[in-house]
Amino acid sequence: MTFCDKIWARTATLLQAIHDHPFNAALGDGTLDRERFAFYLVQDGRYLVAYAKVLATASARATAPADAAFFAQSAHTALVVERALHTGYLEEFGLTAGETAAVATSPTCLAYSSYLQATALAAPLPVLAAAVLPCFWVYQDVGAALLERTAGAADHPYRTWIATYSDPAFAASVEQARAITDRLAETADPETRRAMDEAFCRATEYEWMFWDSAWRLESWPTGQWLRPELTRTTR
């Protein structure tokens, strides 16, 4: 088994919990209310800015030209393609730029973004590759499962989101990210492989937490005293 095969098996229970989470269950059957989805979109949009910078760092640190090109292209996709998807939904919901800016960055969004940024600055490239992989792989896995559940229903309110993450082109990028991670793991020493394992698991935990935070419309418990001008949700 490759490194990715082993780590995917290790996180199987957590991955199932992601699929079973009420947010993704409601996203799949189309009953997810707009407030929760809009909150998720705002937070994910902010996360993607940080994630793109982390991918750009991976590109700069990669020694193989093909790896550098992949991470650079992925950074561009996160900033342009995925954020455009978010913007389209928010405009459809009638939310202005001012309204979305008034939503405080959630504790989970800040924590996940900060974790990846710290990893990009301090960890070796193999560990960084493992840390950014769940955002590719988990989303593709969820998107494919939701597409199967919805059978591509034309009237599904979140069909565009599902189509984006179940798209064959996105699946191909996941395979490339996995291949890079496996190749780096093959030449890594045992300590680095353990750190890669830890990074993948931690980032996957953050993936569950991110969806959970959107379901709960997570806010800062101290916000009422320090940030009364920032709203908790999109409405």
UniProtKB/TrEMBL annotation:
GO CC annotations on file: cytosol
Pfam families, per the entry: TENA_THI-4
Record domain Thiaminase-2/PQQC: where: 14-216
Cited InterPro entries: Haem_Oase-like_multi-hlx (IPR016084), Thiaminase-2/PQQC (IPR004305), Thiaminase_II (IPR027574), Thiamine_Salvage_TenA (IPR050967)
Annotated NCBIfam families: salvage_TenA (TIGR04306)
GO biological process, one term: thiamine diphosphate biosynthetic process
Catalysed reactions, semicolon-separated: 4-amino-5-aminomethyl-2-methylpyrimidine + H2O = 4-amino-5-hydroxymethyl-2-methylpyrimidine + NH4(+); thiamine + H2O = 5-(2-hydroxyethyl)-4-methylthiazole + 4-amino-5-hydroxymethyl-2-methylpyrimidine + H(+)
Biochemical pathway: Cofactor biosynthesis; thiamine diphosphate biosynthesis
UniProt GO molecular function: thiaminase activity
Enzyme Commission (EC) number: 3.5.99.2
Protein name: Aminopyrimidine aminohydrolase
Superkingdom classification of source: Bacteria
Protein family (similarity comment): Belongs to the TenA family.
Keywords: Hydrolase, Thiamine biosynthesis
Top EC class of this enzyme: hydrolase
Function field: Catalyzes an amino-pyrimidine hydrolysis reaction at the C5' of the pyrimidine moiety of thiamine compounds, a reaction that is part of a thiamine salvage pathway.
